[in-house]
Amino acid sequence: MYWISGRAIEKVVAPGLTGNGVACILITRDDRIWFEADNGLYEYREGEQNPYLLYSEKNTEGTLPVVSIKSLFEDDRGDIWIGTWEHGLFRYESTSGRFLRYPKMNELNSAHVVFQDSRKNIWVGTWRGGLTLLKDAYQPEKTSWVTFRYDEKNPYSVSDDIIYAISEDPNTHALWVGTRKGLSILPQREEYTPTVSFENYYPADSEHSISSDEVASLLCDRQGLMWLGMIGGGVNIVNTHVPDFEWDRLPEAKRLLKTSSVRSLFVG
Questions:
Q1: How far is CA 165 from the centre of its chain?
Q2: Rounded Cα distance, 211 and 55, in Å
Q3: pLDDT number for residue 252
Q4: Which candidate in 11, 101, 144, 214 could, as Cys together with 135 as Cys, close a disulfide (CB 3.0–4.6 Å)?
Q5: Element of type H or E holding 252
Q6: How far is 257 from 259, CA to CA, in rounded Å?
Q7: Cβ distance 29 to 63 under 8 Å?
Q8: Residue, of 248 and 40, whose pLDDT is higher
Q9: What one-character-per-residue DSSP string does 44-68 give?
Q10: Radius of gyration of the chain, Cα coordinates, nearest whole angstrom
Q11: DSSP letter string over 69-133?
Q12: Strands across the sheet containing 52-55
């Protein structure tokens, strides 16, 4: 792991941090820094004698083991959702400081990526288990879920069961899902069932298609543009803004009347 200070990049050297891999980093709204390293969850605590706190079963009431963390996400409550490679889903409850464990949701117990949409739904993307929507997300003992799986016979199913990334388009409020085999978009609705229809996008010989099969990351910027990080396809940018005006050049009227000037409008 490295610090960036001004124009300088410095490697972090600290007892206990011996590995070279950091899968995810999260800076919370109250400026706490959480990260995965050496197959465990750490928090950086500036000013402490040992600033790198490793969370384990010893200090989480036996809840969170030292395992590979794949996703860290802060929700609107300030809770931190922790997705793991094969040990399921956990949540750090900010009001109590407790860690909570969720039931096994798929065969591999994968929680590869976690996301909260604008309606406060919690979505979990898995590795080979499809896309999952939690019900009663803040009550682990009552939590159930709806799972959306790839179906080769259904062109409107999610495009693959390996989910890399999840985001929301702020202009349409549709859920964007990056998978190993394309981009799947799920329009917002009041109720989600396993048979809902996704709009799927795949690479093609067109400047208006995505540039690669694998959509590894998704980001919405402050202007409402959607950015797609592709494996082997660079970066794609999508503008879903609804224009203020639609421009019709009236080609047929111009052909027949030899003009495209419009002096008045009438609705019959």
A1: 4
A2: 40
A3: 72
A4: 144
A5: helix 251-257
A6: 5
A7: no
A8: 40
A9: E-TTSSS-EEEE-TTTTTT---S--
A10: 23
A11: EEEEEE-TTS-EEEEESSS-EEEEETTTTEEEE----STT----EEEE-TT--EEEE-BSS-EEE
A12: 25-27, 33-37, 40-44, 52-55
* CA dist 121 → 25, 90, 192, 210, 238 (Å): 22, 16, 11, 27, 24
Q: Please state, in angstroms and as integers, the Cα–Cα distance from residue 163 to each residue in 103, 113, 178, following that order.
A: 19, 8, 6
d(CA 59, CA 62): 7
Instruction: Evaluate whether 34 touches 41 at the Cβ level (below 8 Å).
Output: yes
Cα gap 263→31, rounded to integer Å: 59
pTM of this prediction?
0.88
Rounded to whole angstroms, the Cα distance separating 116 from 44 reads 24
Return the structure tokens found at 176: 């964007």
Torsion of the alpha carbons at 47, 50, 56 and 57, rounded to the nearest 10: -100
Question: For the segment 44-97, what is each residue's pLDDT rounded down to a tens digit?
Answer: 998 888 889 999 999 999 999 999 999 999 999 999 999 999 999 999 999 999
